[in-house]
Amino acid sequence: xxxxxxxxxxxxxxxxxxxxxxxxxxxxxxxxxxxxxxxxxxxxxxxxxxxxxxxxxxxxxxxxxxxxxxxxxxxxxxxxxxxxxxxxxxxxxxxxxxxxxxxxxxxxxxxxxxxxxxxxxxxxxxxxxxxxxxxxxxxxxxxxxxxxxxxxxxxxxxxxxxxxxxxxxxxxxxxxxxxxxxxxxxxxxxxxxxxxxxxxxxxxxxxxxxxxxxxxxxxxxxxxxxxxxxxxxxxxxxxxxxxxxxxxxxxxxxx
Length: 255
Hints:
- The model has no long low-confidence stretch (mean pLDDT about 95).
- α1 runs parallel beside α12.
- This protein has an 8-stranded parallel beta sheet with strand order 7-6-5-4-3-2-1-8.
- β2, α2 (about 50-55) and β3 form a beta-alpha-beta unit.
- Helices cover about 40% and strands about 15% of the residues.
- The chain is of the alpha/beta class.
């Protein structure tokens, strides 16, 4: 990561795990294990029912609250949905948008991702926009074509100033929860590819301001090597974020 241009972001994605009753214990363990003065932004993206507990437990720490999804609508008859305003009211700062599991299991299309990015920005949240290819798409040589389309679609209509407040996470689907990880060279190349896309459409100043994370099974053992790449500005961490000691080691590696 280039510390002169961007601050590292280490974000945990708990997915559908944990209970509100265990958030305080986790938060205390993480605070005890991580550096007293971490040099990165720390985020925990948790299921909606856990957000109040996280906000309460993290109030005296450096942990930022994050959500895993939001509605593209401001309000209305959308049973089960959660708006940007609702999340903001609970103290949420970041929200994951377009995660591969939302795309695969809930049929989220690129236009839906774009609508949610717009909603998040309008609601004062920082969107963490996920892009990445499947193993089949990778084998057919479609990685760059697919990722370019996903990035451009997600950012359609987003202004240069607004983009500075966005985060993009490159998450190769084939490396999520499989134990497989892109090599540091491959992950760095793809994050650089995404930065070049932004540079072409929005200019170098904007591309230098956008944090690009790697999210394909980053863990305590490989974090330092991945984070040493100039275009990898942090990680979106799945399984390892559920273990406070392991998550703390990744936070330490970002320093």
